[in-house]
Amino acid sequence: MYKTFFHQHSAQFGDIPYNTWGLTITLAFIFAAMVAHARAGRVGIDPDKLVGMYLLAVIGGLGGARLLHLAMSDDRQEFFAHPAMYFNLSRGGFAFYGGFIAAGLASIGYAQWQKIPTLKMADALGPTVMLGLAIGRVGCFMAGCCHGRAVDVPQNAIALLPASWGPQLWAVPGPPFLIEMMVDGVGENHVPVLATQVYEIFAATFIFLFTSWAWARWRRFDGQIIGMVLMMYSLWRPFNESLRGDTVRGTGYSVAGISLSTSQVVSIPVFLFGLAIVLARFRYGVAPEKPFEARGPEGEGPDIGQSAPRL
Fold first, then answer.
1. Would you call 188 helix, strand, or coil by DSSP?
2. Is residue 180 part of a domain?
3. Largest CB tally within 10 Å, which of 8, 81, 219, 254?
4. What is the spatial distance between Cα 119 and Cα 304, in angstroms, rounded to a whole number?
């Protein structure tokens, strides 16, 4: 709806825009890290050991998201011919799956280095990825990227924004539920399209809440929760991709004669990996764990704030 929330004028650099997408991505990392920090102690992990991992996840997440987008987008031939295009943020964008995979690999490597129980960490922190995604998609919605295909506005649609504002948002009492129209976005402008970013916000929020409940109340074996996160999202994403209408996400891949987008292709191994974790681990139960308690300076008792808040 509004891709820029603030402009700063500089005598040296001129008008400097502060984009909403950048703000929401920053908030996504912050809130996901806060919840992860609170949950780690409940499975016996020292939360302070994870601070370095958060930094690696940010670097790997942004770097991997950028790499996957360019490597599998319609501009991939130009990218392979001119790799410096990677740093030109005016060309192309970021792919969630690339960030998810790169941040996950970096986190696993960090956990192994710090001797942190990897599956327990993945179960505790896995749902927070969906929280970060839900917040980040707000930025996509405001910027107008990752939008759906063009549709007609039904007669029973309800306008949620005054016509004088320019960008429009309609609620429909039934499918497709929400329709948007941008006027100065990074995707399609002046054309009503499905609000697929909002669909993803609700789906990611549901996965976060459901898997968080399962982690707290219904955890039967180590690896169960991260397996659920992987399988649930990889089932949802292809459906949402089928509603998308943006042209920069990479399309035209063929699997068994079916034309798929980048994220639909990547969803296949992600689902299989989540299923493999569940099948490999469900017999082993939950390994012993004891909530972490920070020790005082003399090691004689718990420090202030000894137990992590329940999130």
1. coil
2. no
3. 219
4. 28
